[in-house]
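Predict structure. Chain length: 217.
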Amino acid sequence: QQNVVVTEPDENDINDIPPEEQEGQQVNLGEIGNYFDVVRNNYFEAQRVIFLVGHISWEMGIHIIQKLSFYDDGTKKPITIYISSPGGECDVGFAIVDCINELKRKGVEVQTICIGSCSSMASVILASGTIGKRFAFPSSRIMIHQAGIELTGGKLDDIANTTKELQYWTDLTAKYISKVSGKKVKEVEKELCYDNYMTPSEAKKFGIIDKIDVVLA
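Prediction complete.
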């Protein structure tokens, strides 16, 4: 009979494993993170949820409009937009509002929810949701005001033209808020003359939102 000698594995034996095989045995945390990102994004897409967060620029606006167009698939399933923004460019904001209004015209319910704060153009987008489905978190803040711009110089005629443009956007804002809130245009114009900060209760009374609640999709 032959004697069989069994030896304990040497912990240094792993050094004899080719590097490519060792690499395959390691956990890639980056891949795990990417996996959960994909799962999360797929969940929100399945629930038709959009996050509008930060300054409203064309880069953001195109992203939001693409999402709204993607969800406009003929099923008429509700869409939820979480909003937390200091506002931004009026033309971008009203482009988003136009898309929301088109969805509502087709019978799609668009739920808007203020988280944190909605100021300036963001408050207009918040107000553009389906009546009865415009929410704000209890601790949030909503602010409305006239259209504004930071002047960095320019000729007198340029400033005059800029003033006309700001008046156009202010008038459009007043008319739209009047339409969705039930307030008279003159009353809204008066409230837009200054940075008008509101609690959720005040925004509800004004007609910008309908309910104060934490609504999670």
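Summary: DSSP finds eight helices and seven strands in the chain.
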